[in-house]
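I'll show a typical protein example:
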Amino acid sequence: MEQPRYTTASLETAACAWEAVLEILNGGAGEKGLRHKAQRIREKIGTAELRLLVLRWVELIDAEWAKVKDTYDSPFDWEFVPDWIARNIDWSGDRPVYKIGGR
């Protein structure tokens, strides 16, 4: 089985997405109550599983970024990625789930 090849850009997106999730877990980002939901999920599935789930978002984030990067005026890492997660990830269940079509 061939191993996937990662670009520098996709690795940066993965790092930015994980940083954004850490901000949520530490209470520095997201809507009220989101920290509790994220911490509950991490306690249930573990940090390693949560990190692997976050990696599944990289292609989705990069695809949306490709559509707006020429007109988006804020930083990719501190604005776009956290905003994407806020719009597109549902933390209300047993694991974070991509909401098709966003909010």
